[in-house]
Amino acid sequence: MASIGLSSYVEKDSFFHTINPLTKLVILLCVIIMSFTLSGFVYILLLLLIIIPIAIKSKVLSLTFKPIFKLSFMFILLFIIQGLFHPYATKKLMDLPFGFTLWEDGLLYAAYIASRLFVMMVFGYWFVLTTHPGDLVSSLTKIGLPHALGYIILTTLQIIPRISGQMQTIIDAQRSRGLETEGNLFQRIKSFMPLLGPLFMGSVQQSVEKSMALEARAFSSKGKKTSYRKTNITNMDKIIMTITIIFSITWGVLSWIL
Amino acid sequence: MDIINFKNFSWKYSGYRGWTLHNINISIKKGEFIGIIGKIGSGRTTFCSSMLGLVPHFYPGIMEGEIIIDGVNVKETSISELSSHVGLAFQSPANQLTGAGTTIEEELAFGLQNLGVPYEEMNKRIKDMLKLIGLEKFGKRSPFELSGGQQQKVAIASVLIMNPNVLVLDEPTSQLDPLGTEQVFDMVKKLSKKGITIIMSTNNINYLSKFADRIVLFDNAIIKVDTPNKILTDIELLKKHSLTHSDITEVSIRLKKMGLYKGELLVNLEDLKKVVQGLIK
Ligand SMILES: Nc1ncnc2c1ncn2[C@@H]1O[C@H](COP(=O)(O)OP(=O)(O)OP(=O)(O)O)[C@@H](O)[C@H]1O
Ligand SMILES: [Mg+2]
Fold first, then answer.
1. In chain B, count of helices (H) and strands (E)?
2. CB A14 within 8 A of CB A59
3. Which of A130, A166, B29, B133 is most buried per CB count within 10 Å?
4. Is the beta carbon of B258 within 6 A of some atom in ligand 1?
């Protein structure tokens, strides 16, 4: 599955790859809502106990947490800045050398933000890893996403790698005619201009041809459409959605009562 | 039975002076293989586009006359409706890919989804089509990972899968290397043998001489319609329209000059073989 372009989908034979994208979208939405409404960061972080077994079952455990590790520097920075410079800090934790102070409420605030980001990113990335863009669009189209919009989403997900491929071809062609494409920034901007012409003109011509090719395949046909990618909502999907929603509400209420 | 009927058809692109196609009259029988030849700008692409209704529905312009294809009147039928009667494949393989399909199977499914064909039927047609174009093993591959010739085969297959009775090909090999060209021509030959009506614009005279039933010479109007033997050996006529005759014709001209052959000019390799074999004896 080399080139699904922008999407980070990985093909795996797992339960969570086969369930309906909408079900996973419900899980994701519940997590996002919870991370904004739960009463403390501990409750949010406990959601990680859920994603770990899910990610293991989806066979993408290490991939799911990869972006977090890549961003660990950002999280550390968040704690340092909030811990030292939180604007409304009142509770002192300890004095540091050079007149700095570590604030308890600053750290708490950082922990709250960090846990929110952490959980949303992990769940979000798990969603992307396990959901084929074609399935996502197909399932969204079934609940009312306009057909043409679905097409645009799918092609956009794939188009960037192709445009950069075309850019390279044009660059090679221009370079073989003696165009300088290296050097300092100014030179590079200057040499970038002649590339835009072919790219843009090419795209206009291409989109005319492409829209004809789409018409030749009944793109603007009025009747009911079907989907080659199978995305039915099964009973299993309904069960998972219900459990997710019930759990979210319970967890939300508990976080405020306890 | 005529499957295609052009009656006094004329077309003028809006903003363009003069008729691009003028007073076209031609009837084509079911199962025929028609070759379209002509110089650059002679209106072949416009002629091909008219059969799917791109002219007059997609391009603005003025149309006169009537086109009836597979029982429907082009002027009164939408392009998407016509796509179940006429399959049209274009020059550039890459531009015909929808860009929405992540696999070749999905690329083939695109038109069927738009027509609302049920999944089981879709699946069956895709399997059959992949077999027909010899890409059974490539179904799950990305269409962007194919060679030009394979992409063009997928492009042709993706309109063919909608079961049209007429297949129109506008210079399907002009952007392909010799190997890709051969692959596509082989596929077209196979389709023609299955009885699909084929209209193919190409200046590959060697190929047309072998497979076309009739050749139509275009120059903003139909200049001549005749058998490959008649048109493709008319050196003066071809020259007048900036076309070159085939190597086989050239050999038969030389044999004539040398006094070794007295018959008509040849365009078919088999005919030439017979003459040469006769000479050897
Ligand atoms: N979209 C358009 N708008 C205006 N004029 C057009 C358009 N497309 C083609 N023409 C003109 O119509 C004439 C016939 O063009 P067409 O593309 O049909 O010829 P062709 O025989 O296919 O040529 P080629 O060998 O270049 O493919 C040309 O003179 C061209 O300039
Ligand atoms: Mg043309």
1. 12, 10
2. yes
3. A130
4. no
| Structural domain contains residue B88 | yes
Cβ contacts (< 8 Å) between B97 and chain A: which residues?
213
Tell me the chain B residues in contact with residue A216 when contact means C-beta distances shorter than 8 Å.
52, 79, 83, 87-89, 111, 159
The CA–CA distances, whole Å, from B115 to B8, B21, B82, B112, B216 equal 32, 32, 12, 5, 33
Ion ligand 2 nearby residues (CB, 5 A)? B 45
Domain of residue B221, CATH code: 3.40.50.300
Q: What percent of chain B has pLDDT over 70?
A: 100
User: Nearest CA of chain A to the CA of B99: how many Å?
Assistant: 5
**In-domain check, residue B252:** no
Shortest distance between the Cα of A216 and any Cα of chain B, in A, equals: 6
Q: Name the nearest CA neighbour of B86 among B131, B55, B60, B127.
A: B55
Q: Per the domain annotation, does B232 fall within a domain?
A: yes
Strand arrangement of the beta sheet that strand B166-170 belongs to:
B86-89, B166-170, B197-201, B33-38, B214-218, B222-226
Tell me, yes or no, whether B44 lies in a domain. Answer: yes
Is B114–A151 a contact, with Cβ atoms under 8 angstroms apart? no
Q: Taking CB atoms and an 8 Å limit, are B98 and A155 in contact across chains? A: yes
User: What's the number of domains chain B is made of?
Assistant: 1
Q: Cβ contact (<8 Å) for B145 and A2?
A: yes
Q: How far apart are CA B163 and CA B85, in angstroms?
A: 7
Q: In this predicted structure, what is the pLDDT of residue B252?
A: 92
Tell me if residue B215 falls in helix, strand or coil. strand
Q: What residue has token string 């089509």?
A: B129
The pLDDT tens digits for A139-186 are: 998 898 898 899 888 887 776 656 667 777 777 777 777 766 667 777
Answer yes or no: do B92 and A2 touch at CB < 8 A: no
Residue ranges making up the domain that contains B140: 2-245
Query: pLDDT tens digits for B190-237?
Result: 999 999 999 999 989 988 998 899 999 999 999 999 999 999 999 999
